[in-house]
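Bug #2210: token dump truncated for C-type lectin domain family 4 member M?
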Amino acid sequence: MSRLVSTTFTLAICVAVVTADDKTFYTSNALANMRYDVTLPNGVITPTTDSTVCQAICSQNDNCDAYAYSSFHKTCQIYQRNMTVHTVFQNSYKLWVLLKSSDKGYMLVGTDYLLPVYEMKNAADGTKRCKNEGGDLVAIKSQDMNDYITQNISLATMASYFFIGLSDEVEEGKWLYPDGSVQGDFDSWAWNGMWERRDKNCAIIGLNGMWKHENCGNVNYFICQIPIF
Ligand SMILES: *[C@@H]1O[C@H](CO)[C@@H](O)[C@H](O)[C@H]1NC(C)=O
Ligand SMILES: *[C@@H]1O[C@H](CO)[C@@H](O)[C@H](O)[C@H]1NC(C)=O
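Reproduced locally. Full output below:
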């Protein structure tokens, strides 16, 4: 399955957040070209002249993960997340996505959540857990993302090591992110990557933000990255 959005870390464009009935909705220009699934039985178009009505319809429906309002068509659509099927969204609508609660550990970074999981699991089981959330182990592709994780997760909790999404299991020395892309432009390997351990095909990040090779079968905490929709 292709990723729905590019995972640009910085989101410098228009972002807005509204809260209704304990539910927080989020929108940004980055959502304009995203794809969604109309899987709610009543996800069909409801005429309304007011976007707050659309928000209320979504807030009151436990299955609603997002709503879209078109001020041009004066219509509302509500959505339920479905990770298997994707339909292209119509242009003149603006999408608002229901945010997962930061109380439950979800950290919004650009159009993804980071979720540190404080359960000791091997890399495969950690990956499975992240996939259940609709994501994967985190792909750290920038210094900004590495700094965010170091300061807001590793140092903040003083948890020593987390699995991250990097593996050279397929070809020794060729490190791949979970989406299959090659780790290249950015790295934070301890020892400048010179301390190559052929027997260790996974990677962990430590308190100092440095990455180390790790045995995939060892258990560690891990960090998931989950697209918001
Ligand atoms: C997602 O879509 C597929 C294909 O239409 C369907 O079989 C599945 O039940 C849907 N899942 C949910 C949670 O609605
Ligand atoms: C840590 O999180 C806060 C709040 O989200 C953010 O403002 C800050 O930039 C983050 N730190 C780094 C190094 O990204």
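Output looks complete on our side. The first strand starts at residue 15 and ends at 20. Marking as cannot-reproduce; reopen if the truncation happens again.
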